[in-house]
């Protein structure tokens, strides 16, 4: 990252340039191996793959960067998409769908699943709630306490069917996902989980949701919010502003 300041009169002009290095690492790895050999290895039985070479020498599959069979590079990409504070240890499906628009290699889905299986934080999170919590819905609680509270608030509460969580399945699944993220946040980053709530909100809203077929940010704004994992794809950006 390069930051330059220019002072003139009563104004201060600040220019910040951010240039990621991951794309350069991938291109260097591609240059060390024969493109034709890589095509033969990766497109065997995959006739739909469209391999092209950009003017800067980068090998693409369609619009996605081809990551060659270099374990360090693939691990670096998956680590950034899973362990970063803006990712918050999301599941393998969400992680795969977040990476797929930008990067390509033949075994990406399998590698993501195996990477997730080795994550100790995710194992600790999931182990704590495999058995669902059971509530007996005591009538003294549901009728007296909640009835009095709702009357005082001027609202009405509808209970779901007993022993039938499918009644409110979508909400229950969302709650489970958020609880997983909160546990992972505490294990990975320590401290008070309240301090990380903005990052958790961002990670959840910027990840793929099967119910709508896209990320909530994409549904609302027409595209996903650009997180650091895709800065290499978008290229060099320059921000200028007066302070």
TrEMBL record:
MF GO annotations: nucleic acid binding
PROSITE patterns according to UniProt: INTEGRASE
Domain Integrase catalytic, chain residue ranges per copy: 135-224
Pfam families linked: Integrase_H2C2
Entry's Gene Ontology BP terms: DNA integration
Cited InterPro entries: Integrase_cat-core (IPR001584), Integrase_H2C2 (IPR041588), Retrovirus_Pol_polyprotein (IPR050951), RNaseH-like_sf (IPR012337), RNaseH_sf (IPR036397)
Domain of life: Eukaryota
UniProt xrefs under PANTHER family: INTEGRASE CATALYTIC DOMAIN-CONTAINING PROTEIN, PROTEIN CBG26694
Name this protein carries in UniProt: Transposon Ty3-I Gag-Pol polyprotein
